[in-house]
Amino acid sequence: MGAQWKAKGKAQVADAKGKLFGKLVKEITVAARGGADPASNARLRLVVEQARKASMPKDTLERAIKKGSGTGADAVNYERVIYEGFAPHQVAVMVECLTDNVNRTAPEMRVLFRKGQLGTSGSVAWDFNHVGMIEAEPATPDADPELAAIEAGAQDFEAGDEEGTTTFWTDPTDLDLVSRALPANGFTVLSAKLGYKPKNPVNPANLTAEQLEEVENFLAAIDSNDDVQNVFVSLGG
User: Fold this and answer.
1) Running DSSP on this structure, what letter comes out for residue 105?
2) End-to-end alpha-carbon separation of the chain, Å?
3) What residue ranges of the chain have pLDDT lower than 70?
4) Which residues form the TACO1/YebC-like second and third domain (predicted)?
5) How far apart, in whole angstroms, are the C-alpha atoms of residue 45 and residue 109?
6) Model confidence over 43-93: pLDDT tens digits?
7) Which pLDDT score, from 0 to 100, does residue 7 have?
């Protein structure tokens, strides 16, 4: 399952593109606070590249940059908020939200966590490492992920969630640097973001099929909230 939970199933996949665009628009808007020019704003450049790879329309992309940089008529201010707690069966969860109204989001999270346990700030963060997460695919048949990780300066790597992809883990401050270096070492970057990697993930084999389904249903409900950007879960692959 990996550090970042991703919905599975036909219904989720069918809705995935629209939801992805919505999340990317928020990320672009927040990143654009640091400047509207991707060339001088590394954070914006990374998410703009991801939006282009997802085939986001140019006008949607430009409108999001204007919103965040304050140059558009409909400027908006999103706040990044992390909610921590447990899914059923004591599986630790960190939920990253981007919201324009915390007074709306907070009670919604309390309701969604009723089948689990909503914790206070820091209650589960200690069991996660804050990392850079780069999803990439080989640009050539002989691309070696171990060599690429070493040459590009990544801390570690593992098989990605999608077949044929590799997840490279970096120090948060090295995310942009490694993202720029990977193409020269045989890998095409699909996405790059900051996230959370569990230190002691729960082995899914230790849960029954019914328990695992309860965890999946809980995570799906959390992820369906419009303010949720990412869900990081302490559950092994």
Assistant:
1) H
2) 4
3) 1-17, 72-73, 75, 237
4) 78-233
5) 31
6) 888 888 888 888 899 998 888 888 888 776 676 788 899 999 999 999 999
7) 61
Which two structure tokens, joined as six digits, stand for 205? Answer: 């084999």
Alpha-carbon distance 79 to 73, whole Å? Answer: 19
Encoded tokens for 172: 């948060």
CA-nearest of 129, 126, 136 to 185 is: 136
d(CA 209, CA 232): 21
* Residue 79: CB atoms within 10 Å: 13
Per-residue tokens: 59: 């006008």
Mapping DSSP to helix (H, G, I), strand (E, B) and coil, where does residue 189 land? Answer: strand
What number of CA atoms fall less than 13 Å from residue 231's CA on the CB side? Answer: 27
The Cβ of residue 183 has, within 10 Å, a number of other Cβ atoms equal to 14
Distance of CA 5 to the CA centre of its chain: 9
Q: Where are the alpha helices (DSSP H) in the chain?
A: 10-31, 42-53, 58-69, 102-112, 145-152, 175-181, 209-223
Supply 80's token pair.
């990044």
Give me the sheet containing 228-233, strands edge to edge: 117-118, 79-87, 91-99, 228-233
pTM: 0.82
Structure tokens at 149: 């990780």
Run of H or E residues at 191: strand 187-198
Task: State the amino acid at position 186 in one-letter form.
Answer: G
